[in-house]
């Protein structure tokens, strides 16, 4: 018990590597923030983290385009194709998983990356006439922790 008290005291009081460095505080604060990107059909999305950090994907999903999105829906659609009024297009789990897999393969544990929002071949979109809207949430994790407990033991 006494060793633990001395260890905690040493970490908090003694000089050495600590979280008091403003660069470390800024880096750590940035790792708490969730960053988000959204894109339309068939776009390239870029994700990036500050130097010394890497991408940690939290969420990647397809959804319906919200109003005022600025996307041009249905550029490749046949003329007179209209989505039924009030119909909600839910993307199946296979489609959602495919997107997540694409994003993780391209970005996970990298400082920056790019990926296409285009659906992989073989994946069937139940509502091809409705534009897809891709949303990705990620965090920037530090490559090294500023505090190494082994330095104090």
From TrEMBL:
Protein name (database record): Jg713 protein
Molecular-function annotations in GO: carbohydrate binding
Record's keyword annotation contains Signal: yes
Positions of the SUEL-type lectin domain: 39-141
UniProt keyword annotation of Signal present: yes
Signal peptide range in chain numbering: 1-20
Keywords associated with the record: Signal
């Amino acid at each position: 018990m006494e060793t633990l008290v001395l260890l905690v005291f040493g970490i908090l009081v003694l000089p050495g590597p600590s979280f008091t460095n403003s660069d470390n505080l800024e880096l750590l604060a940035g790792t708490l923030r969730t960053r988000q990107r959204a894109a339309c059909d068939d776009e390239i999305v870029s994700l990036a983290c500050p130097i010394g950090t890497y991408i940690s994907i939290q969420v990647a999903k397809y959804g319906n385009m919200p109003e005022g999105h600025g996307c041009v829906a249905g550029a490749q659609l046949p003329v007179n194709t209209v989505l039924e009024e009030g119909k909600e297009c839910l993307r199946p789990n296979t489609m959602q998983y495919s997107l997540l897999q694409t994003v993780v393969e391209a970005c996970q544990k990298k400082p920056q990356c790019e990926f296409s929002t285009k659906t992989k071949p073989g994946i069937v979109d139940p509502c091809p006439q409705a534009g897809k809207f891709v949303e990705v949430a990620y965090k920037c994790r530090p490559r090294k922790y500023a505090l190494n407990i082994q330095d104090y033991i």
